[in-house]
Amino acid sequence: xxxxxxxxxxxxxxxxxxxxxxxxxxxxxxxxxxxxxxxxxxxxxxxxxxxxxxxxxxxxxxxxxxxxxxxxxxxxxxxxxxxxxxxxxxxxxxxxxxxxxxxxxxxxxxxxxxxxxxxxxxxxxxxxxxxxxxxxxxxxxxxxxxxxxxxxxxxxxxxxxxxxxxxxxxxxxxxxxxxxxxxxxxxxxxxxxxxxxxxxxxxxxxxxxxxxxxxxxxxxxxxxxxxxxxxxxxxxxxxxxxxxxxxxxxxxxxxxxxxxxxxxxxxxxxxxxxxxxxxxxxxxxxxx
Length: 288
Description:
- There is one protein chain.
- The protein is an alpha+beta fold.
- About 30% of the residues lie in helices and about 35% in strands.
- The chain is built from 10 helices and 13 strands.
- It has helices at about 5-10, 20-30, 40-45, 90-105, 115-120, 155-170, 175, 180, 220-230, 245-255; strands at about 15, 50-55, 60-70, 75-80, 110, 125-135, 150, 185-190, 195-205, 205-215, 235-240, 255-265, 280.
- Strands 1, 2, 3, 4, 5, 6, 7, 8, 9, 10, 11, 12 and 13 form a 13-stranded mixed beta sheet that branches.
- Strand 8 (about 185-190) and strand 9 form a beta hairpin.
- Helix 2 packs across helix 3.
- The longest helix has 13 residues, at about 90-105.
- The chain is globular, with a radius of gyration of 19 Å.
């Protein structure tokens, strides 16, 4: 049986994805050399809207992506993947144009790999920042941190939402409320009787990922990372906003190695809203 021509693939309809497509999405990730991340796909498909193009025979996906909406002021596009056998046929462009039509006037944000930046630039996205990935075995410091942290409790969620709102710039209650079930560990920092930061630790393949990481200052961010790292034997991974050079340098000192970079890109808005000085790492580069 011959593969369909590029033209017939581009004519295939884009449809909404559901949690019933989770395995196909994970297969698509694995096929492109990413972790399967069924856990992350489950979060994204429940908190956001998935779009995909099915194979002509209905078995699997040609392409997929997820849009996480934060209301009329912002939507984040993530996990845009095209099956390797269908690469460089205009499918990613087709899917992105569909997303842009669906979201209409809503500003968009995404984290672009070096391979994807050209496409997004051609579609009108602007480069506004970058993240740097670090990965490795975390070595604890000899001296304990002066910042107090503890495991989050159920009644901390409202305080986390209040802390997060000015940092992210838009209400993301629907994401934060899912963190206790999604994360293996959720940690908060306290000072003078109030929350000063929070961070989650969640599984991805053989690694544990730190994100989101929201903190009053770098010392608080370090304390949260160290507390989370102490709870796992896995390799630790984080995608850190490159503006936080002190945190990145400290993570390298503690044993993590620099890895890939992603560009932060926006469409219809000059920059991400909120306070970047307290936004150290996203939940995942698929959600903004």
